[in-house]
UniProtKB/TrEMBL annotation, chain A:
Protein name: Dihydrolipoyl dehydrogenase
Active-site feature positions: H431 (proton acceptor)
This enzyme's EC code(s): 1.8.1.4
Ranges that cross the membrane: none
Residues at which NAD(+) binds: G181, G182, G183, Y184, I185, G186, L187, E188, E204, G263
GO molecular function (one): flavin adenine dinucleotide binding
Comment on bound cofactor: Binds 1 FAD per subunit.
Binding residues for FAD: K52, T145, G146, S147, D303, M309, L310, A311, H312
Note: The active site is a redox-active disulfide bond.
Record keywords: Disulfide bond, FAD, Flavoprotein, NAD, Nucleotide-binding, Oxidoreductase, Redox-active center
UniProtKB/TrEMBL annotation, chain B:
Keyword Aminoacyl-tRNA synthetase annotated: no
Cellular component per GO, a single term: cytoplasm
Region (Disordered): 118-167
Known partners and oligomeric status: Forms a 24-polypeptide structural core with octahedral symmetry.
Domain Peripheral subunit-binding (PSBD): 159-196
Cofactor(s) this protein requires: (R)-lipoate
Protein name: Dihydrolipoamide acetyltransferase component of pyruvate dehydrogenase complex
Keywords: Acyltransferase, Lipoyl, Transferase
Biased composition (Basic and acidic residues): 123-141
Domain Lipoyl-binding: 3-78
Family: Belongs to the 2-oxoacid dehydrogenase family.
Amino acid sequence: MSDIKTKLLIIGAGPGGYVCAIRAGQLGIDTVIVDTQAPGGTCLNVGCIPSKALIHASDEFYKMLHANQGPLGISLQSPKIDLAQTVSWKNGIVTRLNQGVAGLMKKAGVKRIQGQAKFVDGKTINVVSTDEDHTIRAENIVIATGSAPIEIPSLPFGGDIMSSTEALALESVPTSLAVVGGGYIGLEIGTAFAKLGAKVTIVEATQKILPQYDDALTKPVLEHIKSLGIDVQVGTKAQNFKDGQLHTDKGVIQAEKVLVTVGRRPRTESVGIDELSLSMNGPFIEINDACQTSMRGIYAIGDVTGEPMLAHRAMAQGELVAERVAGHKVVWDKRCIPAVCFTDPEIVSCGLLPDELQDAKVAEFPFAANGRAMTTEREDGFVRVVARASDDAVLGIQAVGVGVAEMSAAFSLAIEMGATLQDIGATIHAHPTQSEGFQEAALRALGKALHI
Amino acid sequence: MGIYTIRLPDVGEGIAEAELVEWHVKVGDVVNEDDVVAAVMTDKAAVEVPSSVSGTVTWLGGEVGDMIAIGEKLIQLEVAGEGNDQVMESATPTSASTEVSSSDGADHKVALQASVQVQAEEVPSRTKDIPDEARVTDAKKGASKRPPASAKATANKPLAAPSVRARAKEEGIDLRSVLGTGPAGRISHHDLTNYIDEGGASPVSVGAHVKNTSVKEVKVIGMRRKIAEKMSLSKSRIPHITIVEEIDMTELEELRAALNKKHAGSRPKLTILPFLMRAIVEAVRDQPELNARFDDEAGVVHQYGAVNIGIATQTDNGLNVTVVQHAEAANLWKNAERVSDLADAARAGTIRLEDLTGGTITITSLGAMGAIATTPIINHPEVAIVGVNKMQIRPMWDGQQFQPCKMMNISCSFDHRVVDGWDAAVFVQKLKTLLESPAMLFVES
């Protein structure tokens, strides 16, 4: 047992925690970070990065598999995929990033302890580690414990019933896969396995997939996944799984594996947060605009504080808290948090949706009128701008289309900088790129569209 | 699952509607039976409204400051079983979830997928390590769109680049008060610099003497609105006459000190208030027209046998007038104890409605901050109010020399429609006599 005193203790080395640690270290703050796992949290180890690796591999495989039927004059003979090798490649990326994050923290002078943390009181943490236990007393504590998949009682994880973590570690492609939950995780992974050759069925209890988006944004996704052979059963409730059959209230679905993606819950129980009696916001820890909890000196960031449960939100909060601990006057003052859905096609949303702004000026530019989109054989989707009619200030931007995730930076920047439709319309956008659609949507809102 | 609607219950006082002053929950919250969901303001006090069922909040019936009629739909919850109502169509302005969901970020969107949660709720068996509240709340957040309130807030923020906003924050400047000269009123660094140079803010590094042109808007709601309405009513309806008199409290203070010393630890400490209450009880015995309420619409003055003395009490939420019922039937210590208990309850927000009603005459005191004279506003529909001013040692001429005396002024206002100046002066002189010769307070009449 060792006793440690520090200025800042961070529980959880996910995107929020490790960014907080790095920034705090850079600011000269004596910092300790504790986690049971390798650095990077869900995002790096079993979330964003692994899923994007699988999506990329499935995209490449699907292109090759169907190259013969395409108009490009490419012919190939029976491409095959070794998913075990794909997973090994994915694991290599994860390891490189784990090491990279660990290196960045070390460079910033952060002390990293691997072990299970538990609150003793509002200033003291016990850490049970494989080598040595620690008692850490800190002036400031950051709770960055993230979230975990929610389990359906009648479909408990284990065996052929998987969470996203197990799905991303499969070493062979199941012949059939039932995905319970039509949100973005289920759609992303389900689409990837469909491209790899699995017969995929998506079971969604409500009447539509991706319920957070409007129909205009989800329609291209629905049309495309259906063209991949995915069976989408909305208004259907999964009940149980037995002998390779998923029983629903509408019938039986044959499935070698079942992927359950019905949401995430904050991870609070393992670290003894309940005993602190912090003010809660439902199941989440309540925070103010400085990420402070109801207890002095204790901050909370990331998924454990609620929605949107996004890695980049956690990172921004982590940076903010480090600055606060360093004595800087900063508060949460963001105009938008970009949200990206890596379905096929992708969906991006920044700022306000059309129905969230009264007196909105809204315009779309379809990729069907975009040269670059035509050259990639994917003309589905559009870019949409949402501006305040009174002064043309752009307060929301959405897009759906192949590759639009990379446009999210431009969208966020425009909103954070307070751009108007005229600003975007007057900015030269490189030709030929899909981003021209952004400029054209702004021009169209001004009644000055050039290419439609 | 069903929808259960809670309507605003009758909160007493015969009122038809109440102002919504606080939501204790928001959409998506899980509440248990008897949890407080909202507070509404009656004419005198905030009343908490508890939930009669357990469930998840799906709809809120208004914003803080709205008037809600008794019996109007206040809140809806999703409950196990059938519920008692249909889902409201309109979205609440105070919905719980915040930003557009989904993204790659955490890879794990409650929101986008939570709809399936609903089905999970209906499965009979549960694993114990999944908090029910997490499941329910997540599901509801997932099912709802981003709230208009959040969107409105975003839409109303000043246009400015992050670096401009950060600089404003560092210098303590509210950007809403800075004039943006860019397109759509966008604020540039140049605008911010001009604002500071023109004295529009007080940067930390600059000297103290700079103009501050900021304007902060504070909505008058809840208790403050009630106070404002009551004061306006009193001042507009009642033609006040105010008499200020100075009182030599030397003897009373000696008596008070002696009593407190004698009963230290066994009885509550006496302030001046119970003596003044005793003096009022004695004074209105001779002038019952001052212990009264004037129903000016009916043209009737109700004179009361009971002396129910209102005590104006400062709380965090504003002025409360607690009422010591039947002060005529209690001794000094009992009245002192009741004043203290009521003040504590008022400040803690636990005061009962019946302790705020039925006053027949009021005392107002600013204690040590009490100034030389004040102009007390009568607590409508009463007809008299006694204001206590600051006590201090002043030299008084005894006919031969100046003597140091503990002097205290009282400022008393009267409804001149029903109280003549002469009667008011008699009342004030009676109080003066009783307080300057405290033995008179205890002479059986």
